[in-house]
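Model the whole thing, not chain by chain.
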Amino acid sequence: MKPIRFSLNGKPVEAQCRADMTVLEWLRGEALLRGTKEGCAEGDCGACSVLVKNSGGKASRYLPTNSCILLMGQMQGATLMTVEGLAELGEAGHAIQNEMAINGASQCGFCTPGIVVALAGLLEAKKAPSESEIHDALAGNLCRCTGYRPIVEAAQKAAKSVAPRLPSAKIADSDHEAGSDESRFLLPTDLKSLLKLKKQHPEAVLLAGGTDLALDVSHARARWPLAIVTRKVEELRGIEKSKTHITFGAAVTWAEMLPMVEKHWPSFATLIRRFGSVQIRSMGTLGGNLGTASPIGDGAPSLLALGAEITLARHGKSRTLPLSDYFTGYRKTLRREDEIIESVSIPLPRKGEDFRVYKISKRYDQDISTVCGAFWVSRKAGKVEQARIAFGGMAAVPARCASAEIALVGTSLDEPAFEAASAAIAASFTPMSDMRGTADYRAKVAANLVCRFAQDLEGDIVEVMAL
Ligand SMILES: Cc1cc2nc3c(=O)[nH]c(=O)nc-3n(C[C@H](O)[C@H](O)[C@H](O)COP(=O)(O)OP(=O)(O)OC[C@H]3O[C@@H](n4cnc5c(N)ncnc54)[C@H](O)[C@@H]3O)c2cc1C
Ligand code: FES
Ligand code: FES
C-alpha cells in the first residue's frame, strides 16, 4: 500500500485506497464531503466538479475538473478544492457562493455546488470575465430548473467583490507510485522511465487525462490492477516552437494547447473551445485523443489538414510519421503495442496559406461531432499550389479526401473548383447512419462545407456556428 498524498481544501491528506477509485466516490464515501454531487457519472453534467491544481506541466492554477472521471491515483501530489473548501474561505465563503444565494440562482440546488466550483475556477483565472466567458465556463454544467440568467448575473456580481484567493497549498510530490495492492498507479517523471515501465508491464493501462478511459471505471465498473500515468512525464508536457514547427507533447492538455493554437490557427482554437467543456479540456490531452483513434475525435481532422506529424516512442527507439499514415482502420493505428505517442508536430503557417475547421454537432457546446471538416490551402499568385481536406465522422477513420484536394489544386478557388471539390467529397465517402445523423445528412453536410470554406475565404462568414 502506497498512500495517495495530496492537498484537500488546504490541508495535506494521505488516502489509503485503490488508485482506480474515482475522486467523487472517495470524497462522498471516505472523506464524507457530500457537497460534490453525482449526476451522470460520465463527465457531461458538471454536478461533480472540483478544482484541481496539478503538479507538473503548465497548469499552475486551479482548474475545474469532473471528479466522476478523475481517479484517486491521478491525485498524487495534486491540490484539490471542493465546494466545502470554498465555503471555508474568508469569513463567509467564496463570493460566488453568496451571490448565487442572494441572486436566486439556485432552486433545487443539485447543480449548484458544481456551478459554484466552475465559476470559482473562472474567477480565479479572470478577474472581470465577459458574459461569453461566463457562458463558456458553464458549458459543462447543466442546470435543469433555475435557468442560466440569474447564475450569470451572480457570476458578474461576484467578479465585482473582492474574492478570497484560493489557498496555494503545495504538497511534497516525490512519490512515483500510489494506491493499494489491488490497484496501483505508477507515475514516472521522465520519458525513459515511462518507456521502461511500459516494457516491464505491457498489461498496464496507459492513462493520460482519463476523460475517455475513466468512463470504463465510472460506468462499466472496470477494475485496473495497474496503470501508468503520463501526466508527470516532462518530455510529454512540453510545447516547443522552432522556426518551422510547433511540437506539442502528448500529455499536453487541450486547455494548455489553446493559447498557442489561438495565436497561429484561430479557427482550430474555435474548435478547441467547443471541445467538451472547461472541465474536459483541463484534463483531456492531445495524445489521449489520438490514442483513442476515434473516427469522430475532434483533434485529427485539423491535424491532418495542417500536415501534422506524429512521433511514436518505445524503449530505446522512436519514429516520426505523417499523421495521415497513422490511422489504418476502425480504432486501429500503426502504433505498436509497446509504443506510446510522444508528440505531435504541426508546421507553422506561412504566407499564402489558409485554414478553417468546422464542427457540426447537434449542440454548440459539449457535444461530439456528427461531422468535422478541416480545409487547408496554400496559394501563390492567386492559384492553389497545395490543398489538404480532412474529415471526421465520414468513415471508419479520420481521413483526407485526395480527389477533393486535387479538384482545388491549380485553380483560383473559383465556383467551378469548389463545385468539383464538393462533388468529389460526396463521391468519396460512404458514411454511416447513427443517432447523430443519417449517412445522407453526413454526405450532404460534408460536401456543403466546401461552400462554407469558400464563403469564409471571401470573408462572408465570421463565426463558426453549430448547425
Ligand atoms: C463529457 C465529454 C466530452 C467530450 N468531448 C469531446 C469532444 O468534444 N471532442 C473529442 O474529440 N473528444 C471529446 N471527448 C473525449 C476525450 O475527452 C478526448 O478524446 C480526450 O482528448 C482524451 O484525452 P485523455 O488524456 O483524457 O485520454 P485518456 O482517457 O487518458 O486515454 C484515451 C486513450 O488514449 C491512450 N493514450 C493516452 N495517452 C497516450 C499516449 N501518450 N500514447 C498512446 N496512447 C495514449 C489511452 O491508453 C487510452 O486508450 C469527450 C469526453 C467526455 C467525457
Ligand atoms: S457526475 Fe456528471 S459530470 Fe460528473
Ligand atoms: S438548481 Fe436545480 S438543477 Fe440547477
